[in-house]
Specification:
Layout lengths: L1 H6 L6 H11 L4 H13 L3 E6 L2 E6 L1 H8 L8
Antiparallel strand pairs: 1-2
């Protein structure tokens, strides 16, 4: 999922992220929320409210994590 956030850094809201990962990674809304919470707690991504909706951004640590082949199963 962090790769999706990186590819669409700051452009996607919940809906777009949910659609992408539900078809490729089999996550539903609840498991997506847990995954996002874990990524956020690890400092790999952050969210910001834009026009009343959250957008998702990858952090520098998240970019490094992806570049070294890390995946969220390791969190």
């Amino acid at each position: 999922m962090l790769t999706y956030i990186q590819e669409h850094d700051g452009k996607w809201y919940w809906y777009q992220l949910d659609r992408a990962v539900s078809t490729t990674e089999g996550l539903n809304g609840r498991s997506l929320r847990r995954e996002l919470d874990a990524l956020h707690a690890a400092g790999l991504m952050e969210s910001q409210e834009v026009a009343g909706r959250l957008r998702y951004f990858i952090t520098d640590n998240g970019r490094q994590f992806v570049a070294t082949g890390g995946n969220s199963q390791q969190l």
